[in-house]
């Protein structure tokens, strides 16, 4: 069984920064992809960024240059550093772990960007 525990969401003003963390536990193979998705009200869940266990990264066009995904393999933890936040970044952010094509989800953490 796999568990994902997220932290770091909150309210921030436009132009501000937040850092999300997600710790995975359970039956985790060393080869996997961890990442972040988000879902705004009335919209579909979308990929924000992900990173393989080898360090290859993938970003949505809307966050390139502002967000950075990283991971600590020893801690089975993935991070999302979010800078220059915009109101349109407001959403519930979900941690995701893919192992051999099977996806696991965290409970979600709210990020609100507002003045």
Account of the protein in words:
There is one protein chain. The protein is mostly beta strands and 115 residues long. It is built from no helices and 11 strands. It has strands at 2-7, 10-12, 18-26, 33-39, 46-52, 57-59, 67-72, 77-82, 91-99, 102-105, 109-113. Strands 2, 4, 5, 6, 9, 10 and 11 form a 7-stranded mixed β-sheet that branches. Strands 1-3-8-7 form a 4-stranded antiparallel β-sheet, with no helix packed on it.
Structural class: mainly beta
Helix/strand order:
EEEEEEEEEEE
User: Main beta sheet: strand number and arrangement?
Assistant: 7 strands, mixed
Quaternary structure state of the chains depicted = single chain
The mean pLDDT is 95
Amount of helix: under 10%
Terminal CA distance: 40 Å
Tell how many strands the DSSP assignment holds.
11
Count up the helices.
0
Instruction: Round the Cα radius of gyration to an integer and report it.
Output: 13 Å
| Unreliable segments of 5+ consecutive residues | none
What is the approximate shape?
A: globular
How large is the share of residues in beta strands? Answer: over 45%
Short précis:
With 115 residues, the chain is mainly beta.
Fold blueprint:
Blueprint (H helix, E strand, L loop, with lengths): L1 E6 L2 E3 L5 E9 L6 E7 L6 E7 L4 E3 L7 E6 L4 E6 L8 E9 L2 E4 L3 E5 L2
Parallel strand pairs: 2-11
Antiparallel strand pairs: 1-3, 3-8, 4-5, 4-9, 5-6, 7-8, 9-10, 9-11
């Amino acid at each position: 069984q796999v568990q994902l525990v997220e932290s770091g969401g909150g309210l921030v003003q436009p132009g501000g920064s937040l850092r999300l963390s997600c710790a995975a536990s359970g039956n985790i193979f060393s080869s996997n992809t961890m990442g972040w998705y988000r879902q705004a009200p009335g919209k579909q869940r979308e990929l924000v960024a992900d990173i393989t266990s080898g360090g290859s990264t993938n970003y949505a066009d809307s966050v390139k240059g502002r967000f950075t995904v990283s991971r600590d393999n020893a801690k089975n933890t993935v991070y999302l550093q979010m800078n220059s936040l915009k109101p349109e970044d407001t959403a519930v952010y979900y941690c995701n772990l893919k192992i051999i094509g099977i996806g696991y989800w965290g409970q979600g953490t709210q990020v609100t960007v507002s003045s």
